[in-house]
Design goal:
The structure is a homodimer.
Chain A lengths: L1 E6 L5 H11 L6 E6 L5 H17 L5 E4 L4 H8 L4 E4 H13 L17 H14 L14 E6 L4 H12 L3 E6 L20 E5 L2 H11 L8 H17 L4 E3 L5 H12 L7
Parallel strand pairs in A: 1-2, 1-3, 3-4, 5-6, 5-7, 7-8
Helix pairs in contact in A: 2-3, 5-6, 6-9, 7-8
Amino acid sequence: MRTAFYISDGTAITSEAFGHALLSLFPIEFNHQTIPFVETIEKALEVKEQINKVCARSNEPAVVFHTFVNNDIREIIASCDGVIYNFLEQFVAPLEKQLGMKAQPKAHKMYSIHENSYDYRIEAVNYALANDDGTKVTNFDDADVILVGVSRSGKTPSSLYLALQYGIKAANYPFTDEDMDDLSIPNFLKPYKKKLFGLTIDAQRLIDIRDNRMSNSKYASPRQCRMEIREVEKLYKKEKIPFINTTKFSVEEITARILSETGLQRCKY
Amino acid sequence: MRTAFYISDGTAITSEAFGHALLSLFPIEFNHQTIPFVETIEKALEVKEQINKVCARSNEPAVVFHTFVNNDIREIIASCDGVIYNFLEQFVAPLEKQLGMKAQPKAHKMYSIHENSYDYRIEAVNYALANDDGTKVTNFDDADVILVGVSRSGKTPSSLYLALQYGIKAANYPFTDEDMDDLSIPNFLKPYKKKLFGLTIDAQRLIDIRDNRMSNSKYASPRQCRMEIREVEKLYKKEKIPFINTTKFSVEEITARILSETGLQRCKY
């Protein structure tokens, strides 16, 4: 199997995003290796050795994705036996021309602490944890969005991702069995109706997930799962609550769709 | 202010990572606009209109970062009045040559559900929540890593990010005031010593964070904060627990360093 290296003087998150986006276009498997924080000449020489060893063991050279802005380190990595893909290189010159100024590369700037965005995100994580699954006295006033849905439809991971990735405060409220007799928006949520965003999920997927947690329970029974989903979808439609079906979506897709449909602005770019 | 668009038929996370990495090299502000899920000709035409309006209002054309693989949509976007940067274009041909095969573009493949990685991550999020701040009976057997540190040193956001981003199960245990008289590794953690990873933080930063939460408390007092940090750092050194100071690091940097220093393998690429 061919090896793909993702290397950076920072977290290597950008090199990974760049390399994965490209490699995902090809229907083959790679052995992925991420090497972050290559900040010194010594470390760069070590990494070069490591790449060369991998290349020597294989009859196909490794592919190497990097974003180094330091010339000395870049040259060392560029002299390895792997095939180098550096996306900054290709785009910096045209952007300099367009923007009418020289780039001012600083090492690992991309995922370091921005003035306020870090605090925003930590605050949003704390908010999501304190307002998760409607179990505690919930502060809906501060919510940017309130995710609703049946148990195990994806509310908690989505609210945490919204917090960590975008600094958005997402509360969440689960509709339970007791809500189902005559499902409506609970009174305490009515003042916040405009913040509600519904999640739903295919019945079979919900049955599988719940059965995994509580086998042979009423909670996981096909009848219960189908009824709950039917009721919440009816409610979403009746009350015109925007909603998405999470069955086939990753947490990135769910949250990107929530942002897109609500027009919520992220706190960090 | 110049506008930067990030557009995709998927989440646009890759376009954002690509565009931000480039724009962060320039010392100017941009008005950022992300438009995900541009999946149809109609939507592409709307987006083109939107870009053209922004360009017409400004004397500088918008910069447009995209990763479209569908030719029809790409051509529509490419015909807008903004300046187009499509990083796939520049790299696909060289990679095809290197890998000896044609790329097989599929729309929004990058952040869609991979076979098993989604479940891994949700399971890891549930694990992190159930094993947060040592409050419940904790299942350390299943932990990939156990973050330790004083209250508010970054354990919870880091464990959630490890789960959501990498599918890694991180438990966390806070050292409290009561632990401080004779700080040592608690007996129940001793069997897991190899999984421990310490976080520390500068005293002044800790004082500020705690004061924000509980003003004028012993918990937030300079003397208490300094003592706790001194004691945990002494413990880390004595017990050879690897540790990092989180003061100047974002959650991305903290978790990338944890992965790098522990050699933990992420469950998803």
